[in-house]
Fold this sequence. Notes:
There is one protein chain. Helix content is 26%, strand content 33%. The protein is an alpha+beta fold. Strand 5 (112-118) and strand 6 form a beta hairpin. The longest helix is centred in the N-terminal third of the chain and has 53 residues, at 2-54.
Amino acid sequence: RPVLGHVSRGYTMVRSFVAARSITLTFRHRALMCLAVLLTLLGTFSAPAQAAVTDLVWVSQTPAATSGWDGVAYGNGLFVAVSNNSPSASTIMTSPNGVTWTQRTNPVNSNYRDVTFGNGKFVAVGSAGTSMSSTDGITWTAHAMANVAKNYYSVTYGNGIFIAVGGPAGAMEYSADGITWTSLVSISGSNLRGIAYGNGRFV
């Protein structure tokens, strides 16, 4: 009987070891399967990112006129670009695809520095307190900023208003419709060259 008891206990220990070994192998097998699935998913998600990087190839296009193009915006299915100067007057051009461009009539001879789209219209700003607006990017109407002694270099739209910045002495103005402008008190004594809106604030 003692011999049989030892044999029985030995059999029980071997069976327990085999069961534990089986559990360990099963766990490792499942872990390897999970790792394989994860790597497959990562490969799937990274493929579009690699394709996007490959697509970042720029091609030079011919503008509608030779000019110093300073600003471009997109809205209502149309690209609109404005220029700082040209041989005769500042220029506006539009394109439905960014490839083929058409020159548009400028309502006033002024250097326009930037253009944006918001609230269903394009708004451009420039030197000597000039601005203009258009709902289709083709026909434009000239307007005057609140301070015609300032030059405005950048304009953006956000939170229901247009904001334009420039100089000297950090000129800033806002407009709800892109037509009537109101001066803002600037905390900067330098020329402001750019402005953007995002995440609930102007920067």
